[in-house]
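Example record for the data management plan.
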Amino acid sequence: MINKYIHNKKGVTLIELMITLAIFGIVLTTIFSINIFGLRTFSLSKTSSDNQFEVRMPTDFIAKKIRYADTIKISTNIPATPTPGSHQIYLESGNLVYKDAGTTSQIIGATGVGDYTFSISKVAGTTNVIKFTVGKSGTTKFDLTTDVIGLNLDKVGITGDTTGIYVEFFTDNADAIVPVSIISLIDPPAQFVPQNNPVSTPLRVTANMSDTSTRQVAARWNPATIDTSTTGIKTSIGRAIGYPGTVEFKVFVGNYEITNIDPISLTINQGQPFSMPTTVEAEYSDGFSSFTQNVEVESWSDTITSSSPGTFTSAGTVSGYVDEDGNPKVVELIVTVNGLVINSISNITETINQGVTYNLPSEIPANMSDGSLQSIPVVWSPTTLDTLTAGIKTSTGTVSGYGTISLTLTVNQSNIPTPIATIVTSGNNGVVKVYGLVGATATLRDKKNDPLGTGTIGPSGEVEITGVKTNQLHDVVLTKTGWNDSLPYNF
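Corresponding structural encoding:
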């Protein structure tokens, strides 16, 4: 029976061949579907990031412009003749446009896109709160809605339509605010890669902005991927939304091999946190040019800790680091652990004003046995200190290998920040909304400082006080136990 199978010289049957091909097709289809899903997910994520950047820039600009407006007028249409001397912001052909008084218009969002959405409205029940939404209507939608309190609108109010795509306003403060835009892009550093090694184009590049700052902005590359199957200098051209210029990303592809990795020598103190290196700097060369690049360490022969003093060694392996015969070479790690001890640590005394956040230090200076001053990790209990109430607050810190220290924080009593108020409804039974410190009591007063109504600022930072004779309103003050009274906000 066994000999029958051993000497069987028949090939596979047609049915066996068809089953094998069917299984192979299912496997290929599954792999292809997973790959396509990953590429689509990456593409959608990058597009979403671009849209957010393109929306946040004009949103920030619009909010700064209208915050100090003396008068605001909203319209559902773009008037042929704006009010002389006014500033205008509006949506035209999918672009966000700003026109300063007496100047030509300028696009404040990304140029050449044409898929912006914009709406602006007066918040119902208020006289000085504007709500506006800037969005993108492309394949990946993104909307950002912002409420802005008009600091100079509490008496004048907002005119025109309730909601619209056009707003004009007068202000003395907005002239100094200019749209933040990209004025130049910086080429990303060139990369050197061995042939057939994958390399990705940078997701973001550094942009010099018109306000003298720098930002990381999304870049779109052509080609989107770098071909490393052949040697040579490969170039991809990048563009950023809102800027007509380009950046250049160069990749030098060669028959590079790791020629050397220097031994690593480290000195640490006993008890100091230490982790084995995950990357090392390797020297690459193709016989003509060379460069250095960080590479991952596959494994270490021994794990070194700082628990005891002495000198310790470990050998690491790196993929592709071999000798002339193809045998693996090792990376030598030498760690010297100094047997230092902490001589002393001073207690900490700090003073801040009420309401200012205080972060306990994660490390503190310690005097070491060799005369040096080193930063040592510390764990605090409690981990946070309350600065909303005045007084002396303390926390105890524990330092490994030493003991405990104390931190004393003196919180000086401060004034409650001045509130902001707006008349929602006028009359003998009016409604007033007050914005201010959470938990503070808002007292509306007449000219004789007699109360006209009170309320407690809620968790959202506001309170609505009803039954107010608004024609007698003079000011509002905030009070709270443990705080000095706020300065009055005058109506």
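Summary line stored alongside the record: The longest strand covers residues 310-322.
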